[in-house]
Amino acid sequence: MRELKDIVKYHRKQAGLSRRALSELSGVSTTFLSDLEGGKETLQYDKVLDVLKTLNISLVFESPIMKELNNEKS
Prior knowledge:
single chain, mainly alpha, 434 Repressor (Amino-terminal Domain)
């Protein structure tokens, strides 16, 4: 599995976006994007989600018991 930093950087480049352009579109600083793409271990979760949403990347949580959790919500 690829690391989040690699996924974000790849998608940004494939979209033809500079860090500055992505920061403006997602509402985060270029420093934040640099930290994200550099693999910094502590980042604000809501800002990470903003970047992922801008790049149309879905975050999926999977585990052996997710089906059980999903059934509880039904």
